[in-house]
Amino acid sequence: MAETDAVADLLVVGCGIAGLSATVTALQAGLKTITLERSTEAEFGGGTRWTEAYLRMKNDSEVSDDFETVFAENAGANLDPNVIVAAGGGYDDWPSYVKAHPFPDPELIGRFAERAPLTIGWLKEFGLKFGPQPIYLLTQNTTRIAAQGGGLALIERLREEAIALGGELRYQTTAIDLLRSADGTVEGVLATGPDGRRIEIRARNTVLASGGYQGNSEMLARYLGPVAAHIRPVAIGGYQNKGEGIRMMLAAGAAPSGDFASYHAEPVDPRSHMAEAVIHIWPYGILVNKRGQRFLDEAPRTVDACYDPISRAIAYEPDGIAYVLFDAQTEEIEGWRRAIRSDVPAIEADTIEALAVKLGLPVEAVGRTVAEFNAACPASGEFKPFEIDHLATTGLVPKKSNWARPLVKAPFRAYPIIAANCFTFGGVKVNPDAQVLDCDGKPIPGLYAAGETMGIYHQVYAGSTSVLRGATFGRLAAQHAARHHNVPA
User: Fold this and answer.
1) Angle 132-239-281 (CA atoms, 0-180°, nearest 5)?
2) CATH topology for 3-262+425-483?
3) What predicted TM-score, i.e. pTM, was given to this entire model?
4) What is the average pLDDT across 462-466?
């Protein structure tokens, strides 16, 4: 048997924004905490360490006007109208199948929208700053601010506070299973320590904030299918997210939530060593696959509203790769280089045919694709790079809906693009207090989830909400645990 070596009021698994928000909140409430992190101390923080931490807010005290709407519009395809009608009533009256339904229910998203500004206010108490920041998206359909110093600043400051308040942080320690009492209450986790030996860490309440499964090839293949072979984490922190937290909660009877067969994707240059080496210039050119063919509408909406599904579509093309072709007319767009974050230069040539040769693409097919695209571009109309201009192709399949200009001015340039996995969508169902629900919609005693372990995304990612989700629900979990700390079980 594994040795029991510690007992805590709150055990937190994961040391990113969700886990540290839970840890510090609990410590401020006077609880004894233990926080586990699978990585080394130098690499702690999972995906949060690498993100720029954009937040879907108008300012540091108000969420965006479309915050709740974007979740409602992407709550899942073909939702049962009976579920929608039932969800319109009081939460206490919802049938169990609605409480456990994988969609992001309005009660949950309403709490998220309400508490996100309060969470930012709490983070500001530690000297962290938020406000408008330069962004690589040249067009946007919502409002955003960002944390100064990005996600790294958030987790470094919260870890500092956790240590100052007496929290215990254990690195190279991985939770592998839940400990449960005879009546099903979660009482901590079975973990492996730095030496690989198993230990039991017991706690009155447990928060699993250990990330998604973007770093687990087996889980990706199981849920995404063969396309999983074509994607990789957007930053090396993603490799730390192996999905154990989600797996052990499902094994304990938690209701699945979110879209397990999808993920938040970003279009990156596969040649680059950089985190988030995004390439967002493709709305002003065309995308071709290894056959030299276009395969989708490159500009159906502003780039922030469509890069997620377009990136995922690239993964389904041969070898999971595409190439953006654009010409020197792009230089007329002010700040266009901001849309390219790769440290590897574009491939350039004086002709489309020479560019195809350099890319290793079929020259005749690429030439034909570009010629057909050029012929389909409108002969009149104003090109407006920073707004929807309806400058669309005619008679071309697939259509390009905006910013369609012929590729005619040398030098011609290209970047390879693959879909990178920021985080997976599948997780477990939680209520507005971040308690994990079973398949009957009932809270599993002693168990909470925050961040990527909780599933709220379907279809298109609600951009710039993931860091907010982690911080907000990490705090909600710890606040609920603190309120009930002295309540008899």
Assistant:
1) 45
2) FAD/NAD(P)-binding domain (3.50.50)
3) 0.95
4) 95
